[in-house]
């Protein structure tokens, strides 16, 4: 049996591609449901239970109770056998480590959860960092629910990366995800038109701890809209709050597009033509470069504003990958 742990719509697309690429049989999907309205809608649009032999779902709430319940259901399915390949999109996440601790696994395949791969490869995988987590009360509860806690997890030996990004490593084997099966399924077409509006990818975590403030973000989008002639089609991040959405929708020269699919598929599904695409270290910028090689794609960089070490790593990677930087 093969186990796929998926926590986002983009991860689900990568899981489908990995299933085709590795030609796996007897596949279990361990799906963590979305908790935002847009996330739920996108998940519902792309999720097909017929793609899987077994589907185990859980919520994001009460993880200490619900994750062990899901693990128990998976154990009933595999009946004491080893998992041939464990596929997941978050290398250093607690859920991932807990699954690893409670199953015998022959091989790991780490696929993308956005740009997280760009950071986790050098930070955790190539440094062979040991994962540690000690929470006495939660660990006692896990044992009561029949689950072995993950207090210390060693680096994975039989690990492989399946990624859209052009990455190199002397530590792990890397397989390239070109989304070839996805492109074929959705009848991929070129949506570039020099006379079309500009696409603008909304940023995640606006107003959240560690994210950009709502006021500065609204001002940034507003100033960008004033500088364009053909208008902007704004694609919100699936976690965007209602307050941000309402403010963006009132900006002059902006068309607020409520996506029902991940952006890569939304453009194809709705046949949205764009003259170029702007974003801020967004995964969709990179995937769009794979789907639409003729479309100019730009990375907006705030002048005089320091980025976090991870965001700076992504910025440099994008620049080296040929995505042009624009100060904004």
From TrEMBL:
- Highest taxon, organism lineage: Bacteria
Q: What is this protein called?
A: Glycosyltransferase 52 family protein
**Origin species:** Salinivibrio kushneri
